[in-house]
Amino acid sequence: MSQSVTKRALGEVRLKVAYKRPEALLSEYTRSIGRGGVTLQTQKNIPVGTRFVFEMYNPGVATPVEVMGEVVRVTPQADGRHVLTIKYDPGQDRGGLDAVLQRVFDLQESEKLRRYARIPLNVPAMEEATPFAPPFFVRDLSRGGVGLEVEAPELPSSVKVGMPFLLEMELTLGTLMLHGEVAWTSAGGPEVLPTFGVNFNTLSPDTVERLEKLLSLESMPPPPWRARICFGMDAVMRVP
Fold first, then answer.
1. pLDDT at 6
2. For the PilZ domain, which residue ranges apply (predicted)?
3. What average pLDDT does this structure show over 193-210?
4. Which of 14, 26, 118, 210 could anchor a disulfide with 140, C-beta 3.0 to 4.6 Å?
5. Are residues 94 and 62 in the same domain?
6. What pLDDT, on a 0 to 100 scale, did the predictor assign at position 141?
7. How far is 118 from 146, CA to CA, in rounded Å?
């Protein structure tokens, strides 16, 4: 990834960021939009209300993905610098985003490694039914399943192959409830967090429609993104 600030005119700042792989671009896009904003440090005192345009490029896609932002707070630092708090807006122009999504789908289809193409999501998820459960993160999603990461030294005892699983997210179209079973697990290592993957069961037509809208990033929830997960009988009892 490389970046550069190009120009500032009429209260607008453009920041160009290049990514070698379209998946890396999408990962940063979903991470940024999911958080709802970002903080940047600058030597200049950029005023509140200044518009930022983040242009995200991938060499295989001609049109950049644009994320709009607005400075909502400026915090002076002791060293003379300033910390900007920028609130994001995905914007209305989907040309670049649709092109990057198609590039990801085309590349994964040509690799023929998976039945369904997957996209990165970067969504924090909590297992509300279990006290002191570690944080989970939804890392990727497809029509056939979901991959998650666990912020813990080892996988919880509830995460084992064959265990029923349910993921819930609130979208603009309503609640998305994805049920399935744990298909594989990885214990991780010294510098690698434990991960696991889930294969979805047969989903209702309404659920499939909501899932498709999320995969195309057309029905994203309002930030900050959050998800709920559960395992075993808790998951079975909550399946619609």
1. 47
2. 13-91, 113-215
3. 95
4. 118
5. yes
6. 96
7. 8
pLDDT of residue 5: 47
Round the CA-based radius of gyration of the chain to a whole number and report it: 20
> Is residue 55 domain-shared with residue 137, that is, in the same domain?
no
Per-residue pLDDT at 4 exceeds 80:
no
DSSP E strand boundaries for 79-163: 82-89, 118-126, 136-142, 145-150
Kindly state whether residue 223 falls inside one of the protein's structural domains.
yes
What is the residue range of 192's domain?
Answer: 118-237
Contact status, residue 107 vs residue 69, Cβ threshold 8 Å: no
pLDDT level of residue 218 (50, 70, 90 thresholds): confident
Q: Would you state the structure tokens that stand for residue 230, as one six-digit string?
A: 């559960």
What the block records as the tokens of 8 is: 């500032």
Give the CATH number for residue 74.
2.30.130
Query: CA separation (Å) from 204 to 101, 141, 147, 240?
Result: 25, 17, 21, 9
CA separation for the pair 238, 230 (Å, rounded): 9
Altogether, the residues listed in the chain come to a count of 240
**DSSP letter string, 30-87:** HHHHHHTEEEEEESS-PPTT-EEEEEEEETTEEEEEEEEEEEEEEEE-TTS-EEEEEE
**Is residue 124 located within the same domain as residue 73?**
no
Residues 212-236, mean pLDDT to the nearest whole number:
90
138 and 227 share a domain? yes
